[in-house]
Amino acid sequence: MLTLARKNLFKERARLAISIGGVAFAVTLMILVRGLYLAYDEKVRDFYDGMRVDAWVVQSGTSDKLAESVLSDKLATKLRAVPGVTEVVPYITRNVSFKVGHEDVALLLTGFDPEETGINTGPVRMVQGIRAIDDDQVIVDKVFAHNNGLELGDTVDILKQKLTVAGISSGGDLVTYQTGFVTNRRIRDLLDDEDLVNAYLLRLRPGTGLGAVRAGVDAVTQNKDVRSMAEISEENGRTVRKGFLPVLGVLLAIGFCVGVAVVGLTISSTVLEHRRDYGVLKALGARPAQMVVVVTVQALSAAAAGYLAGIAASLLAAKAAEVLVPQFITRITLNDTLLIGVAALLMGIVAAFIPLRSIARVDPAIVFRA
What we know:
Elements: H1 2-11, H2 13-49, E1 55-59, E2 71-72, H3 75-80, E3 85-91, E4 93-100, E5 103-112, E6 125-129, E7 137-141, H4 142-148, E8 155-158, E9 161-170, E10 179-183, H5 184-191, E11 196-197, E12 199-204, H6 210-220, E13 224-228, H7 229-273, H8 275-283, H9 288-324, H10 334-353, H11 356-360
Parallel strand pairs: 5-10, 7-9
Antiparallel strand pairs: 1-12, 1-13, 2-11, 3-12, 4-5, 6-9, 7-10, 8-9
Helix pairs in contact: 1-9, 2-7, 2-9, 2-10, 7-9, 7-10, 9-10
């Protein structure tokens, strides 16, 4: 049986290549889609974790969009008096729209203190240029710069104020939007608002519990929520999961079906072409289970080879895509590649069932026909 399986598998090398290619395409698709989701989920977490804070104070009822939270600038003094709080930094951010050339673009603009060494509301990492900008300069994310053809030294007109691109950062592409950074003084000028902030970032004394801080904040102000860094990161990561998970599921299902269809149809055509061989087996008394072994070995061999080819193709495709499209990032893990390997074997097993009907209908008498 194994001899027949090997014979059928390698007799038509072009057909074998098609089977392997189909599985490789499916595996590549699944690895890249899964890796893209993991990378963006991790990027959102890194963005907020990089702020080095212990707690956030936001307006009650604020969801994952921190720009919707509005607090008084005068609240900072009260928060500094809360027991256990060692540092309070205002967080000001707005979605702004402006033109780059003739194109309308949007940017999540955030204020920061370039000289701040504690809490960080500025860029996660610098790629080019300087971090210590002045009030007439702006830092933009590398994805935003790439998409809009911006380089160091270019000027952008944001809310009727001309700012020079003095830095390009990474880590601020958050799936549905990119971030930009200006000084705290400049963002207040841009928004023409000296009295409002979106949130306050707190550093706490070691050993201070979040419950005690919540009680302290409730004692000095009303309608404010105190949230941990993990809660803020989780709420904002939800945007990625809501946007990606449904698409992820569909693409994974498509990839799996492609692999099953290509392998199954290829093996079915092989069975039809080798009906006489299966007829001989039946005439010699071979049981159906033994003939199932033949097609199963063929299907699993094609799936295994396609899986290995898909791993190599996905690694190459990920590298090439990151160069050509900066917002395309992947995080390929060993656990995911093993799980997708199991899925590839399932492709082979499911595909093996497709030609079973053709095998069952083979008439042993075909051996004696001209």
